[in-house]
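Entry, Tuesday afternoon. Goal for today is a structural model of the target with pyridoxal-5'-phosphate bound, before we commit to ordering more compound. Inputs were pasted exactly as handed over by J.K., no edits. I checked the ligand SMILES twice against the vendor sheet because last time a stereocentre got dropped in transcription.
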Amino acid sequence: MEVKKIFLPESELPRQWYNIMADMPTPMEPPLHPGTGQPVGPDDLAPIFPMNLIEQEVSTQRWIDIPQEVLEKYVIWRPTPLYRAYNLEKHLGTPAKIYFKNEGVSPAGSHKPNTAIAQAYYNKVAGTKRITTETGAGQWGSALAMCCSFFGLECKVFMVRISFNHKPYRKLMMQTWGANCVASPSTETESGRKILAQDPDSPGSLGIAISEAVEAAVGDKDSKYSLGSVLNHVMLHQTINGLETQKQMAIAGDYPDVVIGCAGGGSNFAGNCLPFVCDKIHGKDIDIIGVEPSSCPTMTQGPFAYDFGDTVQMTPLLPMHTLGHNFIPAPIHAGGLRYHGMAPIISQLIVDNLIRPVAIHQLETFEAGVTFARTEGFISAPECNHAVAMTIREALKAKEEGKEKVILFNWSGHGLVDMAAYQAYFEGQLKDYPLPAEDIKRALADIAPLPKPRQYRPGKL
Ligand SMILES: Cc1ncc(COP(=O)(O)O)c(C=O)c1O
């Protein structure tokens, strides 16, 4: 029988994270202070994050040691298995070999605890008592809730209202791990009240929830804020995934021609692909594809510009692909992909042509997710279905071209708490949303006066 799963022993768990900042062909442009337009220094970030994470945020050191306390928690679910998707290959009749890295085996169900563990640990060491955060689909909120409980920290989660209503079990998971979760926009913060005054029925967005969580942290001396994606230190922690994958691909005796991941803020994609981006920088020929929803086409349509990470303009300005901080994406079920921006690291790598972005409509992603479930068994999170859909496209292309390509994709999480989305799909209630061109243009007009990065690229609209 052919080998289906490639496991690594715990002794092979990577002991360091990989920092792509050491190898990027174009150095990253710094975050800017929204008031002065000057680069923000560590002290500007200190009310929001603990200094040990700020140091990681700006570090250009290639390898960063993973603390023993974090390794001891990682082994609860890491190393995660790499699978060969023989059944999907056979179903598609493709000569391509398809591999997927299963990040859904973490207790919270996704890749998110890879950074939640690290962030909870560094906050604990720095003396933080309570962490505040946002969550879209609830994967991040539940991951952080679990990790805060491991380190004895309080956890407050602002969950985007549309997802709060779609996914009641996520809230209960957070409660089980001891966190307090409220729907955002909420009446608990100035930011939430401001949005509700404009639109009492606001479905919320990640941008709004971030504003609420940052405000809740800044107003309390014992609290810090934690972001589940986008920032450099989050991408760093996630690289444990790609580093394991490289070892597993070597055991399988293959090397990917194509690496695929879905991208909301960019963290699961980065985690899996950055070690391969390093190989690409050093000469390997790999197509590295980030997949986003067509209704929130940050990478494929948005400019590379400076913008706020949140709606109420509390964060520093980040150089990134963005649809404008006032853009509220359509209520698709992939809540974790409803974000106006993209990680500066991923954005810069797109500008440098090392990463290729693609946008896919919701219905194709669910169709792909169902095909994957009926062949490989696993039911994917709606976000993850974007990666599955792109993998199927690439596998069919390989079939057409008669090429035996090696395709690797990151299976970022399971969808067992997202079955309402599948129900809506089976009942024919899901739809594709047309490109929200007018909304994007309006939101981009709001960022026109902001400073521009040196490598500013206009959007497509
Ligand atoms: C399973 C899963 N995949 C992907 C994402 C997208 O986030 P990111 O781009 O940071 O990986 C999320 C976010 O909630 C998620 O829950």
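The pocket of pyridoxal-5'-phosphate is lined by residues 110, 136-137, 139-140, 229, 262-269, 336-337, 381, 383-384, 412-413 (CB under 6 Å).
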